[in-house]
Amino acid sequence: MKFGNGCWLQKEGVECFTPCEAYFITRKEKEVSICAPTYHVVKRGDTLGGVNLTVKITSPAPEVLRVQTSHYMGVQAKSPEFELNMEAQDLDVTETEETITIASGSLSVRITKNPWTMTFLRDGKPMTKSVAKDLAYMRTDWKGLAYEKDPEGHAYMRQQLGLSVGELVYGLGERFSAFTKNGQSVDIWNEDGGTSTDQSYKNIPFYLTNKGYGVFVNYPGKVSFEIASEQVAKVEFSVPGESLDYFIINGPTMKEVLERYTDLTGKPSLPAPWTFGLWLSTSFTTNYDEETVMSFIDGMQNRGIPLRVFHFDCFWMKEFHWTDFVWDERVFPDPEGMLKRIKAKGLNICVWINPYIGQESILFEEGVKNGYFLKRENGDVWQWDMWQPGMALVDFTNPEARKWYQDKLAGLLDMGVDCFKTDFGERIPVNAVYYDGSDPEKMHNYYTYLYNQAVYEVLEEKRGKGEAVLFARSATVGGQKFPVHWGGDCWSDYGSMEESLRGGLSLTMSGFGYWSHDIGGFEHTSTPDVYKRWAAFGLFSSHSRLHGSTSYRVPWVYDDEAVDVVRYFTRLKARMMPYLYRNAVETSKTGVPVMRSMVLEYTEDKTCGYLDKQYFFGDSMLVAPIFNEDSRAEFYLPKGTWTHFLTGEVYQGEKWYEEECGYLSIPAFVKENSIIAMGDCEEKPDYDYTEGLTLNAYALIDGEEASTVVYRMDGSVGVRAWIVKDGLEIRIRVEAEKPVKVRLVNVGNVQACAEAVSDGKDTLVAVDGCGEVVLRLTE
Questions:
Q1: b or e along 520-559 (b: 16 or more beta carbons within 10 Å of the residue's beta carbon)?
Q2: Nearest-CA neighbor of 765 among 775, 336, 268?
Q3: Catalytic residues
Q4: Rounded CA separation 647/661 (Å)
Q5: Which of 14, 291, 386, 535, by CA, is between 20 and 30 Å from 444?
Q6: 479-515, pLDDT tens digit by residue?
């Protein structure tokens, strides 16, 4: 929200009240409170009126500072509030006549008392600052600035934090606009707007910069960000009302910022191994019955494509009845039997749901009678005709309504369903009345949290912890605890494929660990060319689903080569599971995503700051999908030696490459001194990763240890391995219960020994369980 008129003036009708001095400072054990009048106090009479701001500074976690600024502190706090993990820390406070400095570890804020300024520092060096008129209470009578419902009388609190030269901003949830947010105006307001606009399904009031710090605004409702837009050297954020609450999160690396942010808001839960396999959908408005479904499943199996999950989209229920959780008997006369027949083929089953109850649903009257729906101010049920005629919205703030909804899902789980696609949750009204009196403006974004949490909880209850998984579209802060999330409704062309990746990388810079998208696109039908390129990209994503709108996404409806492509990359992903699952486990512990932006891995490389058409898949592999019909690969490799994952060809970094790429390939490169663990099963993603394991070692660096871990499916460590190259000697040490093979990629000059055999350009080394092998290289 832009309040200003250029550098010096405010817009007409806007008043700006900004702290002028720190008048009183109250120090407590774990809090510093500052009385900050918005005028200079010269004489006693100056204290008898005017706007005064109270600024409280605390530390809810190590290396995190919380700044709460209030005008009227007596305003009643209304739910909801984000669920945060906070434990008050001791503060290190240093005060002089001119300044007060408040520190949590290496992070500190230095406030000059008169005139008022705030500078946030790391190890005493400035990161960002707030000076004159940056922190402000804004009051306006210009209705153009006000929200549709503004009970605070057009009052806002805002902060502006400085950006240094070359500082780039990332995050703010899933955003399909430019990956670096500099120059953008962003409202944190969930919308159902597809992937080709500035709207977003997953808005997160958190950003981080390449300077190694993050900012989290603790407000569930609409937060307006101006990122180097209104003031080109500042990030501004504002909220309606009388107070502002934000956190400064130290790194110093961008990864550490994400670790601390997800310490605060919750770690991404670890999805079960089977979820990493290929998902296939009925698509949306296509015609399908049991015969269609089984023909798809059998068609995939007959063509050697390892399908792992089958998804029933909306029309598993009757039209106009969404949601009633009742199978449409016209096309699925024996749903329980059908689910058993599908499970007999080794598949898990997902069905579509949403949190809305159409007027024709058999649940509607029950919901009205028991008060399970959102209401209007006059007591009527809140209904409208968007999506489902006469639909109502389940009120998840009502414990009985929540239990009622969960019980319906439990019945489906008892029938044989394994997980749910939790669609929608964005178009939530701001003129509704909630059971618990929650603020409807805050609930607009927060509703999705309660919705997905309710579904995730019943899955954990019925299927066990570690088996729950969603395919969710909407999210807010903390939604990462209920994975997986997909990118929403995209078109079926290269532009939309690029938008999807950009949105996904933005989301994973916002605390989300796992991400998926509709392979081949959702709206319309892609060309075979786009479908094949998207399939390769989709199967180099943490989660992979074939899903469309008006047409099927089985590969044979495109061409025979599409079948080959989907088969090849599905089987390859299954073999990659020891590597991929390790990264997934580590994501659940650290919050660093599986699919991550280049800048997250190579922050100091200036080129990587802007790259949004390639990414890291785990911690050791760079992937650059093809986004054109000319089979032209374009990618940048940072400094170092890189090995093509599929061909073994060696590339040198710090340069751009352009080359031709066939459909059965994708630019995928392993960084130097890395170990990629590969399994020997390509029929499914869930198997014993320690059985038949091969550890591929790439471009070992002299004197630097390469190491890896392989987790079992239960998350316990099954294998540890270390490899060190020291001149003409390579030492391999493995801790395992079963035999392990180590492939030294592009290393062929090994002296003959019992454990090592030549395999083309590589050397294959056998290690019998726990053991150490020392190899000598020839000159």
A1: bbbbebbebbbbbbbbbbbbbbbbbbbbbbebbbbbeebe
A2: 775
A3: 423, 426, 489
A4: 12
A5: 14
A6: 999 999 999 999 999 999 999 999 999 999 999 999 9
